[in-house]
Amino acid sequence: MKSLVWLRSDLRLEDNPALFHACRDSASGVIAVFLFSPDQWGRHDWGPRKTAYVLRNLDSLGRDLAAIGIPLLVEEAPLFSDSPKALQKILELHCCKALYFNREYEFNEAARDEQVTNRVLDRGIAVRAFDDQVILAPGTIRTQKGGAYSVFTPFWRNWSQHVDEQLPAPLPKPLAASTDTSLEFRLPEFARSRRPVECSKVHFTVGERAAKEQLNSFLTQSASDYHRLRDDPAANGTSGLSAALALGVLSPRTCLDRAIELDDGLILGGQEGIQAWIRQLAWRDFYRQVLVSFSRVSRGRSFIEWTDQVEWRDNEEDLDAWRNGQTGVPLVDAGMRQLRQTGWLHNRVRMVTAMYLSKDLLLDWRQGEAHFMRQLVDGDFANNNGGWQWSASTGVDAAPYFRIMNPWTQASRFDPKGEYIRTWVPELREVDSSNLHDPRKLRESIPAGLEYPEPLVDHRSARIRAVAAFEKAKQLSTP
Ligand SMILES: Cc1cc2nc3c(=O)[nH]c(=O)nc-3n(C[C@H](O)[C@H](O)[C@H](O)COP(=O)(O)OP(=O)(O)OC[C@H]3O[C@@H](n4cnc5c(N)ncnc54)[C@H](O)[C@@H]3O)c2cc1C
User: Fold this and answer.
1) In 10 A of CB 374, how many CB atoms?
2) Nearest atom in ligand 1 to 353's CA
3) Does the N terminus or the C terminus of the chain have fewer Cβ atoms within 10 A?
């Protein structure tokens, strides 16, 4: 029996459950397919960087698959609604009797998978779906009342205990599906014609081998200091693996497995740095179980329902200033310029820029979420939506609406010497650190002839405005 493996956000050979099981079960060979869906990706705000990253990894994966005798087909299905027909055609053409895939948890993706499953089951094709994007499948752990978690800390407690007891072992690379070594892979013209955008080399290594090397060098060289350096945007203290994880070029179980191996098999009670890093992997799982249990977050709605009543301002000029790094707040501007230039942003700076948009400017977090998604190489719906709703105080385990980060004090705390700011805001290179984190002193110390905008808002007044908007929304929703 020949099988078809439908690859999506799992572009790798090692620890790929759908691929592994298809190869193990199928005596007559395996074919892989990737559906190229630019129209749907556009609707999901994928930007050119993410699309380019997908194509470059597809190119690498196609060659890796060919080396073990599995042809990779890349077919056009402009929208998700085109997927059932496209897959049925391939299944029939290649006489496949089974379809294998790894689950995607977002609302539209899950609906598409259900449509595909119904259609091919009707035609007598077997379907096998696997949980792959996570370390613990959504629903594996539950609150004491049996529900889904909406607060991270108890989730982490249960998650780490569970994983400690039943460590999920990554699956090996599948064995060669055929002895045919004549296979070659070439991206079809419709895919190649999408001009790749140059991506920063540090964060966006291409291909499974490079991602594993990056993981190993992070774990052996930097992870022990992760807890100290992870909040310093000028330090190269994080793994930079988010894009590889978002596309499944690397599996989270492989990350966990290698981290624990280095830490004498411990999750709890091991090295502080490695444990802090594993905790971030648990955040990925947390946000994915939120998508599955509270599908409204996948449909543009807030997790905390009364916050949908907040009256966001409608101000295109402020939005543009934020997008272009021209707000007059150095840390925010540095972040927004780094994002625009490289397609990546440090977690602390993602939080500060997101909170600045949603609180200081009181602009709808969904506008920021979409902008991030269009710019990021590592754009990942669950993490992006989770991070935005956290920052805007509308989400799970959100910062309470009255706890609003002051971007000036955040800068003095996490970039005291201004190294990060000076990298991305050249106008401020000559400004002394002691003047960089105070709006009044900064204005007085900008060298003559250099233009840097006045702050769009005064943080203290903006804070009062944001708290009032949230309080009004809360009152409106109270019967
Ligand atoms: C507003 C906002 C938007 C975000 N958008 C995205 C996004 O689109 N894609 C994305 O992958 N991450 C997103 N994050 C989470 C986080 O900022 C990035 O994962 C991290 O900065 C990536 O850098 P790294 O790979 O060096 O992470 P490391 O610090 O090395 O962490 C390892 C991995 O853990 C995961 N992780 C780390 N922090 C978080 C977190 N807070 N929430 C969930 N998972 C986490 C990521 O997969 C990351 O690669 C967002 C956070 C915020 C506040």
Assistant:
1) 17
2) 1
3) C
